[in-house]
Specification:
Blueprint (H helix, E strand, L loop, with lengths): L2 H12 L24 H13 L4 E4 L7 H17 L3 E4 L6 H10 L1 E4 L10 E4 L6 H9 L3 E4 L3 H15 L3 E5 L5 H7 L6 E4 L2 H6 L8 E5 L5 H14 L13 H17 L3 E5 L5 H12 L3 E5 L7 H4 L4 E6 L5 H13 L4 E4 L18 E2 L2 E2 L1
Parallel strand pairs: 1-11, 1-12, 2-3, 2-4, 4-5, 6-7, 6-8, 9-10, 9-11
Antiparallel strand pairs: 13-14
Helix pairs in contact: 1-2, 6-7, 10-11
Bound molecules: iron/sulfur cluster (SF4).
Iron/sulfur cluster (SF4) binds next to helix 3, helix 6 and helix 10.
Length: about 375
């Protein structure tokens, strides 16, 4: 039975619903007066109400692809179009299983090490950025490199180089083993110290006669980072901050959208669409969990455990910066199929951030940009 049919039955069994009641409870002229329900109707209504779900899905905005991810995907697509398959890509171009699988199907070959790439082949470097050693290795193998590093990651690389040139030690807040951290710390490994937690700060030893600056991975939790920065500055008051925040606009906007959803919509579960190795997606689940709300990171609807959504009233849905929108829509379809009667998107302005393509990719066909 559809939700609307069930709701009609409940109205009828209630006897006096708003739709048939006139002023002061008088029946509306021309309509059947209310009568007590028969026991058969009561039983039918009870059965129907047991299957009705009043679950709602609330969708965050902004969500999904950021400008850096859009650009990186476009770079691989254009490389395939211009040079033909295979196009080699060092590391996952962005951290999303769907994106990687779709590009692989189109002819991209993903490698972890440039030694796996044939000499002279077209090679794309991922959005997360690469250490200088990778560019040297590419040159040694005569690879034709197309750099899809996000400009906001390149900005942090430039900061590292600028501060190191001025004699600073870099205190870098990030997650060990993440591709971006490898790329940024690789800019000046001997001058950079990684901290992941406030416990790391407590163990840290720094010489007070050397200037220092705190830089961060672009996809961190604003809340966690603020706590680590505070701990660093309270132990080492001479540490400076860069002129502008390193946590990128997309990370901030998606976290703020989740905070807004938690504050205004009283959700009792947050589903984040994104892959397990996506840092910014994981941070979105943490925003909810830190506020006492259950949250799960899922690659798609097939990963939803039906027990998670049982008895939920309002389920929030969002997606990380590398998750395609069609996967979000498939999650919403899944929820609709399990009783989500309303899907509501929190209104927010569009981000309207676009990064230009690397020079090779500024191709035209018939005079029109591709
Ligand atoms: S999440 Fe931020 S830093 Fe990472 S690719 Fe997107 S815009 Fe660039």
């Amino acid at each position: 039975m559809s939700i609307s049919a069930s709701q009609q039955i409940i109205s009828r069994v209630g006897g006096v619903s708003r739709s048939v009641e006139g002023r002061r409870g008088q029946p509306v002229v021309g309509q059947t007066p209310a009568r007590p329900p028969t026991s058969r109707e009561v039983r039918a209504a009870r059965r129907a109400s047991a299957t009705i779900s009043f679950m709602e899905a609330i969708v965050a905005k902004p969500r999904g692809f950021c400008a850096g991810v859009e650009r990186a995907i476009k770079v691989v697509e254009l490389a395939l179009e211009k040079f033909g398959a295979p196009v080699y890509v060092r590391k996952e171009i962005v951290h999303n299983t769907h994106v990687v699988a779709r590009l692989r199907a189109a002819g991209a070959v993903f490698v972890n090490d440039l030694d796996e790439v044939p000499i002279g082949a077209i090679t794309v470097l991922s959005a997360h950025g690469s250490p200088p050693a990778v560019y040297s290795r590419a040159a040694a193998r005569d690879l034709q490199v197309i750099d899809a590093t996000c400009p906001l990651v390149t900005k942090v690389h430039a900061e590292v180089k600028r501060y190191v040139k001025r004699g600073y030690r870099i205190i870098f807040i990030g997650h060990a083993g993440h591709d971006e951290v490898e790329g940024t710390m690789g800019q000046a490994p001997e001058c950079t110290t990684l901290v992941e937690t406030t416990a790391d700060v407590a163990r840290l030893q720094l010489a007070s006669d050397q200037p220092g600056v705190i830089l961060t991975q672009t996809t961190l939790s604003q809340d966690d980072t603020a706590g680590i920065v505070q701990a660093l500055q309270s132990r080492f008051p001479w540490l400076e901050l860069p002129p502008s925040d390193d946590i990128c606009y997309a990370t901030q906007n998606r976290q703020n959208a989740v905070k807004q959803m938690l504050a205004e919509r009283d959700i009792d579960l947050l589903l984040v669409v994104g892959s397990q190795n996506s840092s910014n997606s994981k941070r979105l689940t943490e925003v909810a969990i830190a506020r006492g709300i259950d949250s799960h990171l899922i690659d798609g609807p097939e990963q939803i455990d039906p027990a998670w959504i049982q008895s939920r009233r309002r389920i929030g849905v969002t997606s990380g910066a590398s998750a395609p929108e069609d996967v979000v829509q498939s999650v919403l379809s899944y929820l609709r199929g399990r009783g989500a009667g309303a899907i509501d998107e929190i209104p927010a302005p569009d981000e309207n951030v676009v990064f230009g393509l690397p020079p090779f990719a500024r191709l035209t066909r018939g005079g029109e940009p591709l």
